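#structure-requests
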Amino acid sequence: MTDNSYKTYREEDLIPLSALQHFVYCRRQCALIHIEQVWTENLFTAEGRIMHEKADSNKSESRRDIRIEYSVPLRSLRFGLIGKADVVEFHRQPDGSWLPFPVEYKRGKPKMDDCDKVQLCAQAICLEEMLNVEIPRGALFYGKTRRREDVVFDKRLRIQTQETARKVHELIESGMTPRAEFSRKCKQCSLYDLCMPRVSKKVSNYLLKAVEG
């Protein structure tokens, strides 16, 4: 479950769940979106938005021992998070109780890093705090592969998620945007033209040498 050593956040200090995914993917991207309030749309974000709009119906379904809720509001005062889950399945247990199973929709394919898993785990942590349950797993559905990837919320992922939440709060509170570090994934980022990672890195290196000069 969660670590009681973490402080309780105020409502006005809650950060979007998506910020954790942005942070793990790229700290500069996270700062540009959540500090500088920069956002633009490209083919990738448009496809992702369409996928989320299909899930964002606020409807519910029942299928035997599974109850499905869409666009479920989430919050954690313990970790300072707020947002929505695309889908939460409630699976009936042998004792008659209902166990939440969060499902997050992504437009592409499984990533090399844990950014999507951290976002999903954060959703589970919110549900655990809200419903006083322990959620062992959830799933990521990728539009490109049209398949689910089950995610186990083990100790390692929980610690990573909790630490990411703390670091995102620190980043936003600092008001500082990290300098660019170009990598292969930059070309798929909707903020590529605004971030200009190649140019920004050259300028930063030039200024650093000038100061040290």
